[in-house]
Amino acid sequence: MSITCVKGGTLASFQDEGRIGHQNLGIIVSGAMDSYALKIANIIVGNTRSSACLEITMRGTILRADKDMLIAITGGDLHPVIDHIPVPQWRPVFIKAGSILKFKGAITGLRSYLAVSGGFSLEDFLGSHSTYLRAKVGGFKGRALQVDDRIEIGQVTSQRLAMTQQLATDTIGAFNGTSWHVRPDFYKKNRSTFMIRFIKGPEYDWFNEESQQKFTLQQYTIASSSDRMGYRLEGQSLEKISDSEMVSEAIANGTVQISNNGLPIVLLADRQTTGGYPRVAQICTADLYKFGQMKPADKIHFKEISLNEAYKELAELERTLRQIELSITFKTNRGSVRENQEKP
Question: The Carboxyltransferase domain covers which part of the protein (predicted)?
Answer without folding.
Answer: 24-320
